[in-house]
Write a structure and sequence with these properties.
Elements (H helix, E strand, L loop, with lengths): L19 E6 L5 E3 L1 E18 L2 E21 L5 H10 L7 E8 L11 E15 L11 E7 L2 E4 L5
Antiparallel strand pairs: 1-2, 1-5, 3-4, 4-7, 5-6, 6-7, 6-8
Length: about 160
């Protein structure tokens, strides 16, 4: 009989509960985020039709790949590194491509210790930076949302 928290006694089914999402970019100080809005990686479907001995034969194949995207959200602070990095992208500067890691830490985890999950990105760059709207005199928090694109994204913890 499998133990509690496992499907077959061999693979853990621990659900990840993250309290901090840390973006580590080469050449920049680590930046903490409160929310991972999402990670997206997609390969389009390509359909092919051929004439077979019994009529039309349909098959599906891998199509065009779309670049992986990661969207993160945090309270706006005075750290302007993300804006400077995005400005390099807007100015078409080649050194805006950076290798980076997105680390997920759970409640009470040491942010200088091992992360629960680490996603590695090659040639990452901020494609979009947004600051939420807020009225003057309001006590709402101003949020910054950043969308990153990259050439490759992989889970450094995954076992093949």
């Amino acid at each position: 009989m499998a133990g509690q928290g496992t499907q077959d006694g061999k693979k853990s089914t621990e659900i990840i509960s993250a309290a901090v999402f840390r973006l580590e970019v080469i050449g920049m100080e680590p930046i903490n985020f409160a929310e991972l809005v999402g990670i997206s990686s997609e390969v389009e479907n390509a359909e092919y039709m051929a004439a077979g001995s019994t009529g039309a034969v349909f098959s599906r194949h891998f199509g065009r790949t779309k670049p992986p995207t990661i969207t993160l959200k945090r309270g706006l602070d005075l750290n302007g590194e993300l804006w400077l990095w995005h400005q390099k992208v807007r100015n078409l500067m080649y050194d805006a491509y950076k290798d980076a890691a997105l680390k997920l830490y759970g409640p009470g985890d040491d942010l200088n210790g091992a992360a629960r999950v680490t996603y590695m990105m090659s040639n990452a760059w901020p494609s979009k930076v947004e600051v939420s709207g807020v009225k003057a005199g309001a006590t709402d928090i101003v949020y910054q949302t950043v969308t990153l694109m990259c050439d490759d994204l992989f889970d450094a913890n995954a076992k093949i």
